[in-house]
Amino acid sequence: MPGLPPGKLNAITDVRGVGVGHCTVIEGDSIRTGVTAVLPHPGNLFVHKVPAAVEVINGFGKAVGLSQVKELGEIETPIILTNTLSVGVALDALVEYKLERNPEIGRKFPTVNGVVAECNDGFLNDIRARAVTRRHVRAAIAAAGTGLPREGNVGAGTGMSSFDHKGGIGTSSRVAEPYTVGVLVLSNFGRWPQLKIAGVPVGQLLPGPQPAGQEQGSIVIIVATDAPLDARQLGRLARRAGFGLARTGSVAGHGSGDFVIAFSTGVNCQAVDQDRLAAERLRDDKLEPLFQATVEATEEAILNALFAAEAMEGRDGNSRKALPVADILEILSKYRAINKGRNDI
User: Fold this and answer.
1) Percent above pLDDT 90 for the chain
2) In Å, how far are 40, 41, 103, 135, 157 from 138, measured between CA atoms?
3) How far apart are CA 31 and CA 134, in angstroms?
4) What's the pLDDT at 280?
């Protein structure tokens, strides 16, 4: 797909300082779940907040902390991704983590706003078992690193499905000189006949599962950039992520929870001099390359999740196949849609 070049890792961690950690939870024949943590920077986020925005494409979801992010335009904790029924324990672990590092919370300063987002992995995972614990959340945070994150069946993506195949975690980045935009997705949406890759209607050209009923999946999209943007401008970037989602064939169905969380590492939220803070921000008429970067990185992050995911069997013998990569590459070659890259698309 022609467009902007990817960063060195083609990952959200191409945005300097951003860290990703996973904790995968697989037990017996029915537990297929986990936790993924995204850290905007390695410091104390409660003290050094980052500007942020939230875009709700379709609100069928159980995320917490997003209303305050939308109101105040800041993120002050790591972003935790997990399954739907583990949001509560993830928030509890996140609050515990911040209280340990900030004894002034609830005393000198107000309370802390933890950000947790989710998708439902109940097809492969016994979600009622609520196997995720605070220990798993803390392990994901502790594992956060700035190298190339693992993709597919890992962390929060362990039990997720996309386009009636195995889904999970995917990431990508684009460079819009002198800035970088990185995206990480928790992909758990889509029906096979909808799937498009590089504009090619793969799900209609290849035989595959023929699902019945309405869309029941979700996706969480995290957009990071080192461009100096404020919360309003980040909201503009977050809205563009929906265009990347649509390129893969999504229609944001009735039962699909589609959320975007965007943040910038390029602005100091605690700057005392507001005139200097305003001067640091990028002008609106310079945003268009970042819009393009967001669309392209979102689309590829979703495809990377699909291409990286491996077949899995889980609860009650339910299973998801891996994407038929060889057949897809043959079709893309036929339509001259192949461009050399990490996944040859």
Assistant:
1) 88
2) 16, 16, 18, 5, 17
3) 16
4) 78
Q: List domains and CATH numbers for the chain.
A: 12-334 (3.60.70.12)
Residue of 30, 250, 256, 264 marked catalytic:
256
Catalytic residue among 121, 230, 258, 264: 258
Distance between start and end Cα atoms, the chain: 6
Read out DSSP for 143-199? T-BSSPPP-BSSGGGTT-EETTEE-EEEEEEEEETTEEEEEEEEEE---GGG--BTT
Whether the predicted pLDDT of 45 surpasses 90: yes
What pLDDT, on the 0 to 100 scale, is given for residue 257?
Answer: 93
Write the Ramachandran bin of 127: left for phi over 0, alpha for psi from -120 to 50, otherwise beta.
alpha
Judge whether 258 counts as a catalytic residue: yes
Tokens in use for 20?
Answer: 């990703």
Secondary structure element (H or E) that encloses residue 118, with its range: strand 115-119
172 is known as an active-site residue = no
Kindly state the tokens that stand for 340.
Answer: 């050399």
Q: Under a CB-based contact definition with an 8 Å cutoff, are residues 139 and 23 in contact?
A: yes
To the query of whether residue 256 is one of the catalytic residues in this protein, the response is: yes
Q: Which of 161, 218, 250, 264 is catalytic?
A: 218
Global pTM reads 0.95
Closest among 221, 26, 271 to 129, alpha carbons compared: 26
Q: State how far Cα 179 lies from the chain centre.
A: 20
Report the distance separating Cα 30 and Cα 12, nearest Å: 31
